[in-house]
Each structure stands twice: as structure tokens, then as C-alpha cells.
Amino acid sequence: MRSSRSVAAQRDNPIRLCYYTALLPTSTNKLNLLVTGGAGFIGSNLVLELQDRFPSFCLTVIDDFRSGDFKNLVGYKGDFVAQNLAELDWTAQFGEEKFDAIFHLASITDTTNHNQFEQVHDNVESFRRLLQFARNNTRVIYASSASTYGAATEASTESSKAAPTNVYAFSKAMLDNLAARYAAENEGAIIVGLRYFNVYGPREAHKGAAASMVHQLAQQMKRGERPRIFKHGEQKRDFVYVKDIVAGTMQAMEATSSGIYNLGCGEARSFNELVYILNRSLETNLEPQYIDNPHAHYQSFTEAVLDNARTGLGYKPRFSLEEGVSDYMQWLEAE
Predict the structure, then answer these.
(1) Is 168 tagged catalytic?
(2) pTM here?
(3) What is the DSSP secondary structure assignment for residue 206, as one 8-state letter?
């Protein structure tokens, strides 16, 4: 029997995977799904939601724990493969096993890692090997990034030119190039890229300094410290709650063709606003401490245009920043 939380989740955010499950024989309601990076922040939230929402599905996770933590998967009941994707021989590992879809969320996500070879080699070669294994037969849904838009000054559409300002963003732009080429060369392949904006939420603490500003500022304020933000707090971000990102990622199973989609909240909010919202949620009254920005290349503005995601995926974020922060703080308090 499904938990009451699962039933409530379906009522509040009714993802049914109707199109995809309609392709299955009537005698089964079981998809075989694989998630790379499933011990990471977004990956673990996706895995546990898939398990909760569709308990009959078969799930496999691949992770090498460079950007993940086993604690994020407490309660996970599926298979786990500990492998470095940049070196994985997919055929040797899985033989003739057929996956209905692969969610590729694994990558080196630390933007402060300036080893250009490591970042590009591991992120790009991992994706290349995956695509070769999945050629023609397996739907691939992969994590791109809003960082590919670079130093944007207005809301970004999927047609905006890639302008990466760090090697992480460059590696994600190369994933987009690979996906477009493979989709064009392999008739019938469906490869869906999702450009995640500034994601925050449960199961990100293991990322440390790379965790979201929502997490970092909340921890400072819970210790009674003034929240430290760059002068003068007017930089704006499209903060998007991980529950909305998981919903959009799952909805990519319904896409009928290859493409790239923005996934965000669709509204840019300033760091000053974020501090105000955190103060209200945490019942504190802490003024920001403004510090110099040491980063030469810094995204001062991000905002997603969501028109394509709405029409192509049925994506509609449910959480405003106020609602997402409130839900997140309750989760942190329970933890």
C-alpha cells in the first residue's frame, strides 16, 4: 500500500507518465529506469520520488560518490552500481539489459574546481559513453545547466547563445552539443536536456561550500550569525525548489521529441529578498553583512523563460521562493 505522503504528492502534483506507460503491455506496469548521480542532491530526490510514486518500477543508481553521499539514499530499495562513468563499460556492466529511460544527473558539479581537463573529460566522456549505450532504444534525460547562458542580463530562453564563463558551464554546453548530434544521427532517439537554474532544497548539505545560497545563509542565520552576501545584495537568481525540479525531470518522460528545456521558478529574486524571507521563516531579525565579491566571473542575474517547458513538458513550478524556503526550513528542522 502506498504511503499517505505518496497519495498527497500525486494529488498536489499529478505526474502520471500516461504517454510512456501506455506503451507498455497491459500485463505490466513496470518501467526499468536508471539514474546516474543518484546519490547526489537532485539525483537522490529524484530516485526517492520515483520509488515513492511508482513502487512497481525497477530502479538502478550509478554513483561514484565524488558529488554524492550514501546518506541521501536512506530508504532506497533498488540496485546500486558504484562506478566512475568516465571509465564505465556499459555493455560489460549491463549486458543485454534494456532500460526504458536513463536520467543522467552525474557530473562534477563544483564550479570552484578549475581543473579543466578533469571537468571536461569526466563530464563529456561520461555522457558520450552513455549515449553510445542508449543509442536508438533508450530515452535519455540529462542535466544541462543555466550556467551555459553565462553573464545574462535578461531572462534566458533555450535559443539564447551559449556563453559559458567557467569550465563547468563549458562542459555542460558540450553535453548539449553531443545530445543534438546524437539525436540528429539516430532516428527515433529521444534525448531531453534540462537546464536547471538555481536549485535548493533537501539533501544538499553534503555539497558543503557548493550548496545553494539558501542552505548556506540559513545555516549562518540558525547559528545566530548575520548572513554574508556580496555587496549590495541586489544580485538576482532564479531560485527553484528541488521538488519542482524533480517534477519537471519526471515530466520529461512524456516528451515526444528531443529538445532542451529551461527548468526554473521563472522569477528572479534578489539576495536581499532571500535574507528577508529566511528571517521570516526562521523567526530571526538578522541584517545582512555585505562583503566584497572575489569572483572575476560571476552570474549576477539568472531567470528562466519557461514557455517551452510549459508546452513541451507540461511543467509548472508550484513553489514560490517563500513557499519553497518555508517547506525546506521545516525539512531541515525535522532532520
Answers:
(1) yes
(2) 0.92
(3) G
